[in-house]
Amino acid sequence: MGQARALSPLLRAGAITIVRDGAEGCAVCADGHTTYVAGFPQTPVDTNGAGDTHTGALLAGIADGATWVDACRRANAAAAIKVTRRGPTTAPTAVEVEEFLRGK
């Protein structure tokens, strides 16, 4: 969490910082508050594309009106699903992420 907080003063006012830590989750610093968002550790099959999946799901959540913390949780879930699949272009659908989160 410290890295997200440490980066904030280096950026313009209102910037959001997110520091990912693989299966452990990520930290998000928004509006002066830093929040750790737990990950969903999985037994990985292929981690190629997990970061892209996380970024895509995160931005889709923000575009859909989610808070930064909620979008990070969805992104963590999407990346957790992705690492259980072989290949870089196997990101889950929004429905798959919802089903995954309902089970948690």
Describe the structure.
With 104 residues, the protein is of the alpha+beta class. Helices cover 42% and strands 15% of the residues. Strands 1-2-3 form a 3-stranded antiparallel sheet. The model has no long low-confidence stretch (mean pLDDT 93). Helix 2 (50-63) packs antiparallel against helix 3 and helix 3 (68-82) packs across helix 4 (94-102). It is globular and about 40 Å long. It contains 4 helices and 3 strands; from the N terminus they run H-E-E-E-H-H-H.
Look at the helices and sheets and give the structural class. Answer: alpha+beta
Helix proportion:
40-55%
Q: What does the main sheet amount to?
A: 3 strands, antiparallel
**What is the number of helices?**
4
Order of helices and strands: HEEEHHH
What does the radius of gyration come to?
13 Å
- Shape descriptor reads globular
Mean pLDDT: 93
Distance between the termini: 23 Å
